[in-house]
């Protein structure tokens, strides 16, 4: 795991932002971990980014839940954050990683009807974070593998972003590329 | 004589481009293009894994994967073995492509791992085909591989901009990334139009934008320019 102190401070800030329901801060914190995740291929950083982004989405969609359900899911997120802070502080990175993975993937302690909502939020957050990693210049397959999702899930999302309209991504005059295509078929 | 010509050309498809065609329900264009192509459309086993085998296990993408599988079953898409290139050769060269490509860019004394096996296998196969004297073009919709082959300096600038840190680029001497001819789904669609396989300009327009919105790395400006060439 890279930049432990940085992750610790992000988790603490995320907890504060969640309690004050500050979605903007949560999304910004989530993006901060993506730089390290892209460079170091760090799955822990990626999971933290997914966790915090989906927490922001939960708060954004608060009105879709009744108060009890919302509080149950929020408490679940806060427990993951508290556990993570605990393990990182104790420098027990293995337990931090496995605990985080289990809580994100299994959601066993949640009420049955909320599991699906949470899994859906995690999945959407994974795809969103994948598009961020891809935006950083990492290839689509590498990104899919880092996030543990399929290329099929990423292409739909990136296709609707402005990633491919950035000037740097243009590498050849289109007439020249067309010429290559016509020549191979001639 | 025709048989010899048949072996002298190949288009190597990446997974992304197959996904773009499948998601837009325009795989028939590949069938039609193949009829007028004096060569082979090839995918590696790694690419098959990404665009057929793995999505077959995901309900949302199963139909799309089955449609691509139909092209494999009909020999529209073939494997490198059909050109005398063994799985082992590809595996060996793929590892070499991965080793080289993932040590080109460095930050903080660490290399940036930019591509993975399926993508690397496309470059490996392209290299092996050229070594055999086969004129090969790679068809990819993915941006990073294209930038790596055509303008790695732009990729370095992109990394520096996004990571907000200095990125060092090692000199690229490898034959894997040299003189690689790249086309995207947009160019294949354009050729199909030129060959009369797409009858209507409106359909061409719809297909080009459809490809972009399903992940093809083409800009709005490039689509406009491409349409002005019709």
Write the layout of secondary structure elements.
The complex is a heterodimer of chains A (186) and B (230).
Chain A: H1 4-19, H2 23-40, H3 43-60, H4 67-89, H5 93-106, H6 112-135, H7 140-147, H8 151-159, H9 174-185
Helix pairs in contact in A: 1-2, 1-3, 1-4, 2-3, 3-4, 3-5, 3-6, 4-5, 6-7, 6-8, 7-8
Chain B: H1 2-6, E1 9-13, H2 15-23, H3 27-35, E2 40-42, H4 45-53, H5 59-73, E3 77-78, H6 87-101, E4 105-107, E5 110-111, H7 117-131, E6 135-139, H8 143-150, H9 152-163, E7 168-169, E8 182-183, H10 185-194, H11 201-213, H12 220-228
Parallel strand pairs in B: 1-2, 1-6, 2-3, 6-8
Antiparallel strand pairs in B: 4-5, 4-7
Helix pairs in contact in B: 2-4, 2-5, 3-10, 4-7, 6-7, 8-9, 10-11
Number of helices of chain B: 12
| Low-pLDDT sequence parts of chain A | none
Relative helix content of chain A:
over 70%
Residue fraction in strands of chain B: 5-15%
Task: Work out the largest interface and the residue count of each chain.
Answer: A-B, 42 and 74 residues
Cα separation of the termini of chain A: 52 Å
Q: Tell me, what's the shape of chain A? A: elongated
Q: How would you characterize the overall build of this protein?
A:
The complex is a heterodimer of chains A (186) and B (230). Chain A is mainly alpha-helical. Chain A has helices spanning 4-19, 23-40, 43-60, 67-89, 93-106, 112-135, 140-147, 151-159, 174-185. The termini of chain A are far apart. Chain B is of the alpha/beta class and 230 residues long. Helix content of chain B is 56%, strand content 10%. Chain B is built from twelve helices and eight strands. Chain B has a five-stranded parallel beta sheet with strand order 3-2-1-6-8. A three-stranded antiparallel beta sheet of chain B has the order 5-4-7, covered by helices on one side. In chain B, β4 (105-107) and β5 (110-111) form a beta hairpin. In chain B, α2 runs parallel beside α4 (45-53), α4 crosses α7 (117-131) and α8 crosses α9 (152-163). The longest helix of chain B has 15 residues, at 59-73. Mean pLDDT of chain B is 93; it is low at 1-5. Classes of the chains: A mainly alpha (186), B alpha/beta (230). At the A-B interface, α2, α7, α8 and α9 of A face α2, α5, α7, α8 and α9 of B.
